[in-house]
Amino acid sequence: MPSANAPSGAWLDDFARGLRHPLHVEIFDFWRSRCRNGHIPQRQDIDPVEIGVRVLPWIVLYDVDWTGQAPRFRFRLVGTGNVARYGRDSTGRWFEEVYSGVVLDEQIETYSDAAQNARPSLALRQLPVKNKEFIPYERILLPFAGDSDRVDTLMAVIGFSDLGSNMSPQAPIFGTPGNI
Predict the structure, then answer these.
(1) Model pTM?
(2) Measured between alpha carbons, how far is 144 from 83 in angstroms, rounded to an integer?
């Protein structure tokens, strides 16, 4: 069974230095402040009131299902900013219902690593969206433990940008959120 021990302080320091997006810095500081006695935070340590209001629309929560040979991932909550940006709400759906091909394989690999090793992940990606061009984004992925000593929730914060400028995370890529 995968352990929910937090990575070492030095590893977390190195990870923090690699964060570029202000939303990622903010949520990582929140997550790290809840690591206790060498363990990652528990799911109940997530208090939306304590998370900055500019971060909340960009959060995605995933359930980690350990019943099979490999973990599976289901969207538990998709923030309103992400729904508007992607033009879909994947809440309640499994990865296999949302992604396919190489994108599915990459997502499963990345999320499995974060869940199995109980460590944060940072990705700079381009996500294909049906009838649209690729949407570039930066994603931080943070593990949370459940009642047992394993990761049962992953939290992502999606930071949209052109990956080279300081574009506001609220600025839509394809016009206004209402016409995405």
Answers:
(1) 0.84
(2) 23
User: CA–CA separation, 137 vs 162, rounded Å?
Assistant: 7
CB of 141 closer than 8 Å to CB of 154: yes
Residue pair 83/108 in contact by the 8 Å Cβ criterion: no
Residue type, 53: V
Taking only the tens of pLDDT, the chain with its 180 residues reads 445 777 788 889 999 999 999 999 999 999 999 998 888 999 888 888 899 899 999 999 999 999 999 999 999 999 999 998 888 899 999 999 999 999 899 999 999 999 999 999 999 887 666 676 777 889 999 999 988 779 999 999 999 864 333 434 443 333 223 322
Strand runs (DSSP E) across 58-134, as ranges? 59-65, 72-78, 121-127
* Length of the chain counted residue by residue: 180
Alpha-carbon span 27 to 141, nearest angstrom:
10
Contact 37/45 with Cβ under 8 angstroms?
Answer: no
CB 149 within 8 A of CB 1: yes
Q: Other CB atoms closer than 10 Å to residue 134's CB: what's the count?
A: 11
Domain boundaries, the chain: 9-167
- The fold for domain 9-167 equals Beta-Lactamase (3.30.450)
